[in-house]
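Good morning N.,

You mentioned wanting to compare the apo and holo forms, so I went ahead and generated the holo version with zinc ion. This is what I fed in:
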Amino acid sequence: MTFWNEELETMPVEELKEMQFRLLQNEIRTMYEKSEFFRGRMQSVGLTPDDITDMEQFRKIPCMRKSDLRDNYPDGLFVRPYDELVRIHVSSGTTGRPTVVGYTQTDIDNWSESLARGLTSFGVGKKDVFQNMHGYGLFTGGLGVHYAGEKVGATVIPTGVGNTDRQIQLMQDLPVTCLAGTPSYMFHIADVCDQKGVDIRKQTKVTKALAGGEPWSESMRKKLYDRTGIKAYGCYGASEFYGPMFLECDAQCGMHVWADLTLIEILDKDGNPVPDGESGEVVVTMLQKEAFPLIRYKIGDISTLTWEKCRCGRTHPRLGRITGRADDMIVVRGINVFPSQIESVIGEMPFLSPFYHITLTNENYMDKMVVDVEVLPECLPDDVNAINEMSAKVQARLKEILNLKAVVKMNLPGTLERFEGKAKHVTDNRSWD
Amino acid sequence: MTFWNEELETMPVEELKEMQFRLLQNEIRTMYEKSEFFRGRMQSVGLTPDDITDMEQFRKIPCMRKSDLRDNYPDGLFVRPYDELVRIHVSSGTTGRPTVVGYTQTDIDNWSESLARGLTSFGVGKKDVFQNMHGYGLFTGGLGVHYAGEKVGATVIPTGVGNTDRQIQLMQDLPVTCLAGTPSYMFHIADVCDQKGVDIRKQTKVTKALAGGEPWSESMRKKLYDRTGIKAYGCYGASEFYGPMFLECDAQCGMHVWADLTLIEILDKDGNPVPDGESGEVVVTMLQKEAFPLIRYKIGDISTLTWEKCRCGRTHPRLGRITGRADDMIVVRGINVFPSQIESVIGEMPFLSPFYHITLTNENYMDKMVVDVEVLPECLPDDVNAINEMSAKVQARLKEILNLKAVVKMNLPGTLERFEGKAKHVTDNRSWD
Ligand SMILES: [Zn+2]
Ligand SMILES: [Zn+2]
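and this is what came out, ligand included:
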C-alpha cells in the first residue's frame, strides 16, 4: 500500500482534527480580513474570528450558497488581485449567469495535491498510462485530473471528451492502464468495443478507471467490471471547491476528504450535525483556499461522512455516495437543471398553461428527459402540423436555456395533474442498477 | 523591455552559437546511444557522434520526415520507458495513422520555457488575463499555450475553441488583456462583436493576441488592429517539436527561435544552406529533447532565418513567415491535406475517373475546398438524384478521411483538364490580404 503523503494521510485522528480546526481558524481570520463579503456574513450574526473557538461557534456562521457566487458575478468574491491569480474556470450558468472561480498558484497546487493523494490511493502512479476522457477547458474535470495525473508521474493522454473510435484505438495501441471519464461514457466505450469486436480484457491493458461527473451506483461498478475487467473508483468535487477533489481508495468504501484541505459537515434539516455516518446535507468549507472564501458552502447534496478508520490505513474521513439533492435541482446528462428554468420557458410561450411535468428515464445509463406541457384552450391548434410546431418551439427554447435536448409532449387543456400545495414537478424513473 | 531569461536571451551571438553546437553534439551522442532508429540513420552514412565536429559534418546526417514518425507508430521512436513519460499528444493522421509524440517532464518544462520567453517578449506577464481559445486536449496548441500562460504568471482562462457568445461575454466581463487563437477565429470574434454592437476597444481591455495554427499575413495583422485595436503576434511550432514554440517579439519582425532548444537550418533544393535571411526549406533539430529524437526534421515549410540582431535586444535568430510548402501538402482550415489522400478516395469510387482538381478559396479568411471529379462514361447516371447521390458519397468519404467538409463537383467524362507530365492538382485562390 503506497501513499502520496504517508505521514499526513495516516496522522492520528485526534491530531488531524486539531490541525483541521487550527487551519479552519486561520482561514476564517484571513477571509474575515480580506473579504468584505465574508466579514459581512460574520458581522450579520455578531461574530468575529476570535469567537470561533469550537465547532459550535463555527456553526453559527451563516451558510453560503451557489447564489452568493452568482450574485457576485463575475469576480466580486475574489480576495486576490488578478496578478496573483493564475487560472479562472467558468461553469455554465443554470439560471443565466455563469459561475466564475479563480485560483492562485497555491490553489492550483492544493487541488493537484488532493487528487494526487487520491490517484495514489487506488494505485495510479509513474508506471501508469492515464487516458483522460474528461472535457478540457473551462470545465474543471479535464485540467484538474490532467494536472494530478502528471503530478503522480503517470503518462497522461489528454484525449478529452468524444471521438470514441479514436479513444478505443489509443486504448489498444498505447499501453493505457487507467481511464478517467463519466461512468456513462465508460459504458458507451464498452458498447462500441462490443460492436467492433474489441475485447478490453485481451486487447488493452486498462484495469482501472476514475469515474466522476454524474451519479452512478455499486451495481454499475460491478457491471462495468464484469463486462470489461475495469475497476472504477468514484470521485467528488465541484468547481466552487477547486474542481474534482476526493477519490475512492482501494478499499472502495467512500471518498477520502483530506481534512487539511477541506472540512465537510453533514447537517440535518435544522442545521445540526448528524451522528457519524448518518445521512444529511453536505456543507463544505475549504481550509486553505486563497482566491475567494468558501466557508460553510451548501452545495445541495445529501450524503454521509464517517471518521471511522479506513481499511487502507488513511485516517481522513470518508464521504459516502451522493444519494440525493437538498433542493429541487436535477442532474440530467451531467447538466444541472432546475425545474424553475423549465417553468420560465413555459412562461414565455403564450400558447401554454403554467402546468408541466418532467419525467426522467434512462437506458444504458443515458438520461432522457420528457417535459409534458399543456395547451391553453383558446390556443388549441386545428391540425397536427400546428401541434408539432408548438412543441418544436418549446424544445428549441429548452435547448437554448438548458443546453440539453428534451422531448416535449403537448397535452390537451386540463389533462395534466393539478396538485394541492407544492406541485410535484419531477418524476425520476432513472435507475443506476 | 523585460526578458524571461535575460542573460540567455541576449547572450553574444558567437557564445550562443558555440553553446548551440555543444548542445547539438550532446543530443546526437545521447540519441545515438539510446535510439536504434537514429543510430541506424547515422550508420547508413557511416557516421558516429565523434564525426560531428562541424555543421558540414552534421549536414551529412540524413533528414527525418513525418513518415518516420508514422512508420514507427505508435511509440517506436520513443527512447524513454513510459514511466519516464508524463504526457502523450496525438495529431490526427493525414494519411490514416495519427502521429504520436511523447514528453518527459523536462520536455514539458522546456516547451513551457520556450513559450514563456515568447510571451514575455511581447509583454504578456503577471498583470495579464489571458483567454486561451486554442483547442485543449490531444492538440498541442491549447495545453502548450496554457502551461506557458501560467508559467509567466498570467491569469489563464481556458475557454478552448468555440462558443463565441461566451468568449465575447467573458472578454467583456473579465479584465481580459490578451487572446490566443487562430487568426481566422479572431476575425470571427470581431464579426460577431460587430453584429452584437460590442466595441472591443471600449468594452474590453484586450490589446494583444497570440495568433497561430494557420497561415496569415501582415495585412491581416493590420486589419485586425484597425478593426479591434488588438495587436497580433505570430507563432510557429508543431507537435513533432513539442507544440507551438516560437513567438514574435514586440518588434514584430520574425519569430525568435531559441538557439539553446532548437537549431533551424534553411536549405536549398540541393540540401545546401542558403545565405542568412534567404528563403529555403526549414529543417528542425531539437537540442534538448528527451522522449524521442528529432534531428534534421524536414517539416516541409519554406521560410527564412536570420541571425541579425533584433531591435528587441535578443540575439537568438528569427524565423520569417512561412511562405509555402516544400511538398504538395495544403493546409485547409488548419488541417493538413495531401492531394494523395483525395486521390485515394477517388480511387475507391468505381464510378469515377482518376482525374480530379482541387480549388481553394476563402472568404473572411475561412477556407473553402472544391474538389472537381469526373464520372466514367459507363457510369453516367440518368437523373439528377443519381448524380447527387454520387457526389454525396464522395463528400462523405472525404469527410471521413480528411475530417474536413469539401464541396464535390461532378463533371462529365473527359471535361477535366489533362496534363502533360506532372499534373497540377491544386489551384489555391485564397488570399490573406
Ligand atoms: Zn481508504
Ligand atoms: Zn526580437
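The two ends of chain A are 31 Å apart (CA to CA).

Happy to go through it together on a call whenever suits you.

Best,
F.
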